Amino acid sequence: MNNVLLKNSYGLFIGGQWTEKNEKLPVLNKYSQEVIAEISVAEESDVNASVEAAKKALNTPFSPYERFEVLTKASELLLEQKETIANVLVQEVGKPIGESIGEVERAALTLEVSAEEAKRIHGDGVPVESAPGSENRKAVTMKTPVGVVAAITPFNVPLNLVCHKVGPGLAAGNSVILKPAEETSLSAILLAEIFEEAGLPSGRLNVLTGEGSEIGGYLTANQEINMYTFTGSPRVGQLIRGSTGIRKVALELGNNSATIVHRDADIAGSAIAAAQKSFNNAGQVCISVQRVFVHEDIYELFLENMIEATKALKVGDPADASTNIGPMIAEKEAIRVENWVNEAVSQGAKLQAGGKREGVFYQPTILTNVDPEMKVCRNEVFGPVVAVDTYREEDEVIEKVNDSEYGLQAGLFTNDLRFAMKAAEKIEVGGLIINDTSGYRVDHMPYGGVKKSGTGKEGPKYAMEEMTEEKLIVFQS
Ligand code: NAD
């Protein structure tokens, strides 16, 4: 495939200006491991300049309708450049081309939904006159922007997760300072170029690239930033939470998602869905299926089907349309996954598929005979590995699913309404997906976890709740 990148060196985007820095970080093609471009490394002064630019931009009116227009235009431009940007994702993430195209289309939709939501921001009437002594008062609330929002995003879905912060952030009337993941910043930079072309006022979106451990510290130290919205690992989420005092923080963190396959489930359908959602993007998805609990009565048949579906997946060059699974983000991550699987096997787990690493690739792997204390069950694998276990009783499987410090989403295959209702009540997650795996997400739904999976919701409408303040106005006559 041709290298479709327009430039091989990219600058920071601050106050509507692109500035190249002397210090650069290479961005690798994750399949070939070649350097495809360099990104500028922001310094503390750049962080502070972007905060000033973001604050200044807030002084220029940017009406909800203007936000709608800019976001709609950006969504259209993104679709116009679908192939180019998808090819960037193929290279910088190692994401198969079909999935990469899907990510660009999703990102355009996220901006479109954000545009629509920009027109729907509203407060409430508050019946203060109902309180004794308040008969001559009236009250309303209005939603005001929080101000300057710092958005920090992970490597795995680098365009759409950026849109999930930039879209609602701008729609709600804020200025956004974006710090994309260093491994995959190019798609975020191209998105900023698109916003520039779409007519976004200067300073409303600023992009700072470089190492998160450095820039993150400068961002959290800057007291002029009003809110932090972070998607990434629990470790970094906790660091941000710990260093931002009483300022607003929304955290979308990790998970070790479970999916239950009940005795009445469509065995072939659920096995194929589980195989797809365990391994897409090489398992580097926060709602990737990591733990499957199958009712004893159908376990053997389900496993047979899932192994068959897994063995049919093609691992290889992400630019090849027939590839299902590309490389992991870095060889050290593939080695970590290899070590966890080997450790599980040494502790008694049985390999049913995969279990092999070749450089940056890890084969899609199914383990059975697992114990909940194994790393592949207890921790977030964030790789193409799934642990399949059995259960007999409903309460037993609910307990197994809840035996996790995480709680983002779970899946449940059943047509038994009574069990589905019970699971909906008892399973400790932000979202339970009935008759599908944990790996379902669209932009209209509230998305976010409980327990160590985070606080706050995404989905443009819900993220905008987080990114606005509810201000009360009381009138006395
Ligand atoms: P990560 O936490 O390593 O990095 C995420 C971002 O934080 C990057 O931009 C990075 O540069 C930045 N960062 C690093 N150190 C920082 C610091 N000290 N202060 C501030 N920012 C810092 O995560 P990752 O490896 O890119 O992504 C994988 C993780 O993201 C997994 O745990 C996954 O579950 C999670 N994730 C969650 C969701 C969700 O919606 N809940 C979605 C996607 C990924």
Automatic annotation (TrEMBL):
CDD domains from the UniProt entry: ALDH_y4uC
Keyword set includes Oxidoreductase: yes
Keyword tags: Oxidoreductase
InterPro entries found in the cross-reference section: Ald_DH/histidinol_DH, Ald_DH_C, Ald_DH_N, Aldehyde_DH_dom, ALDH-related_metabolic_enz
Keyword Oxidoreductase: yes
UniProt domain Aldehyde dehydrogenase: residue ranges: 18-472
Similarity field: Belongs to the aldehyde dehydrogenase family.
Xref: PANTHER family: ALDEHYDE DEHYDROGENASE
Protein name in the entry: Aldehyde dehydrogenase family protein
Organism, as annotated: Oceanobacillus locisalsi
